């Protein structure tokens, strides 16, 4: 039974499956991220995507710069390889034991337009930082990930130990209760769906949800935090998809 306004298993956000989304999700889960067209045709059949529909989508994706084609093999473009790296980091984030320090980024650049400010906010959010107040971004210093060189041109980095209790501060910076409720609803949903297209859509939602996981130290999270269970479920599903695609 769900409570406190947490999403029910049938209320999770599932997006419709297009040929493009299926192809991208398949390739994003493969290393190396490439498949011959005959294997792509076979892999998308369970989702009701016809071969002619797939080939039209592949042509559009090559033209848009999503894919590269070499003979009959399609591979993710360099731009989408970065997206694959972020997805891999979401499934297997690299962390260290937390000593109580907080990572802090203070935006120092001025005179930027709305588009530049929005781009910077998006980049800081992807780095799993949260905004304490305008221009000041924080997170516990337990997460290892590369930071873009361009960040040094617009912000100063450092560490801090806020006076505010750590659990209280984390709960203020991230919607932890909502994230956990949606995560548990997703786990319930993926456990009961069986049709390939339904499972595919459900695990696509799992990936999107993991990208929003702040990856906080365990001592700042509730005991039943679903992050690791979601990662394990998706890793199993990705291995299953990769085995079928490579079969």
From TrEMBL:
GO biological process terms held by the UniProt record: DNA-templated transcription
InterPro entries reported in the protein's UniProt record: PaaX-like_central, PaaX-like_N, PaaX_C, WH-like_DNA-bd_sf
Protein name as catalogued: PaaX family transcriptional regulator C-terminal domain-containing protein
Domain Transcriptional repressor PaaX-like N-terminal: 18-79
PANTHER family: PHENYLACETIC ACID REGULATOR-RELATED TRANSCRIPTIONAL REPRESSOR, TRANSCRIPTIONAL REPRESSOR PAAX
Residue stretches making up the Transcriptional repressor PaaX-like C-terminal domain: 196-246
Transcriptional repressor PaaX-like central Cas2-like domain segment(s): 97-145
